Amino acid sequence: MPAxxxxxxxxxAGEGTRMRASRPKVLHAIAGRPLIAHVxxxxxxxxxxxxxxxxxxxxxxxxxxxxxxxxxxxxxxxERRGTAHxxxxxxxxxxxxxxxxxxxxxxxxxxxxxxxxxxRAPLAAGAAxxxxxxxxxxxxxxxxxxxxxxxxxxxxxxKDASPAERAIGFCNAGLMGLSGDHALTLLDRIGDDNAxxxxxxxxxVALARSASLRAVATAADDDSEVLGVNTxxxxxxxxxVLQQRLRAAALDGGVSMAAPETVHLxxxxxxxRDVVIxxxxxxxxxxxxxxxxxxxxxxxxxxxxxxxxALVGPYARLxxxxxxxxxxxxxxxxxxxxxxxxxxxxxNHLSYIGDARVGAKANVGAGTITCNxxxxxxxxxxxxxxxxxGSNSSLVxxxxxxxxxxxxSGSVVTKDVPPDGLAVARGRxxxxxxxxxxxxxxxxxxxxxxxxxx
Length: 454
Prior knowledge:
With 454 residues, the protein is an alpha/beta fold. It has two domains: 6-226, Spore Coat Polysaccharide Biosynthesis Protein SpsA, Chain A (Alpha-Beta Complex), CATH 3.90.550.10; 232-423, Hexapeptide repeat proteins (UDP N-Acetylglucosamine Acyltransferase, domain 1), CATH 2.160.10. It is built from ten helices and 37 strands. A ten-stranded parallel sheet has the order 12-14-17-20-23-26-29-32-35-37, with no helix packed on it. An eight-stranded parallel sheet has the order 13-16-19-22-25-28-31-34, with no helix packed on it. Strands 5-4-1-6-10-7-11 form a seven-stranded mixed sheet. The radius of gyration is 31 Å and the shape is elongated. It starts with 5 loop residues before the first strand and ends in a 6-residue tail after the last helix.
């Protein structure tokens, strides 16, 4: 059988006023990615054509869509008059035709590609309408799916439902599939004869049945997939569900976490087997950790690559562009940014390494910083293999420390140090024997004078 074409219309025009935030609702993030990005990724995985419907003036949402899914068409719902009205804002995309049409929502970020594909299956079997259902623990407030065998008879809103219908636990998740042959006809027949004078997508079920067309309800495998976000509390709830998914996948892949509930992963965190993650570690987007690495407690990683056998933390921060090769040690209160730390190198305490290369098996002493910013431009520091940087040193970039070179503790290095050389850049120590005893005697005498401070 030839592959069926599909158009997925993602509705993202809601105002999101209940979020109590200036940022558009669908741009709020969970696991390091905006809500709409999660939905678009699921749709992209199905190979569907994509249309996104946004509200008027939603420039930030449009820009995000173009960045995340350049192939997507964006349409504006000039006035908000219900879900069917929103779908018809993408009329031009509908008129270009597709075997299947899916309607998804940008604020249901946990939806999986498999579920979207499952929503299409009844359409391939001849149904005109396919509705996704779920079984919440408490169905109060949800529209009920009234079925007769495999057929969907009606979607009954709770306020209109009979006591028997309210007892139904199978509820409307909102996502819908329409046969491409009937989609525009059904959508155009939906009216606004209701209290709010809005056009409701759910009316497509009754219209299909009145035209002797079949409507079918399919069940989501995991009810959490259809959780929507309308408030900050719901955003946190959905984010917590996603974290559970991500942690479960990591554990199943051979990662050790003593307290997984305290570890926060990003949507794209890549963890190899035999990685150990201690409690209270946060991963931002773009982190890859290789086999045998240990991420100790209270560390924060984003945009970083951690090599095999590396040791990070506790209380370490890896910022974007940090690359740790195998067996590197990055210790407590060390920050690495846009730098490569080569194999076996160590920076164990209280240091900042930015825009730098630290050569293989080099040792960076406690309190060392690379002074990479001159107030206008960033500059690079190059520390050679086997170099030793004494504690509390400042390396003023651009500067190069040669292979095997030493930098004396407390130095402010502004010039290159040759291989195997020694740089000491600090004031010469002066020792005055007996000075402290003489000072205490003078101070004691001064304190005894009348009118002296107590």
